[in-house]
């Protein structure tokens, strides 16, 4: 997942959690406007969500945020 998408996922998860609490669910569509202005990025998010992780349509924002942050930590550890 490219850096811009990771940052967007974390920001959206933080926003949803702040507004609706830690039990809030979302789909990968939550990271995009209703108008599909970046189909490549949308497909990257869908690939990560559906094929790579086999997630349900709706997942808890806290789970998604943790998955992205854990991937960042794993990547950083592998670089050292």
Automatic annotation (TrEMBL):
Pfam families tied to this protein = DUF6500
What is the designated name of this protein?
Msl2237 protein
Cited InterPro entries: DUF6500
Organism name? Rugamonas apoptosis
Q: Which domain of life is it from?
A: Bacteria
């Amino acid at each position: 997942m490219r850096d811009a998408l990771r940052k967007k996922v974390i920001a959206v998860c933080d926003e949803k959690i702040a507004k609706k609490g830690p039990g809030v669910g979302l789909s990968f569509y939550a990271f995009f406007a209703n108008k599909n202005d970046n189909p490549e990025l949308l497909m990257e998010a869908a690939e990560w969500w559906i094929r790579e992780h086999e997630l349900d349509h709706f997942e808890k924002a806290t789970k998604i945020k943790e998955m992205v942050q854990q991937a960042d930590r794993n990547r950083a550890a592998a670089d050292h």
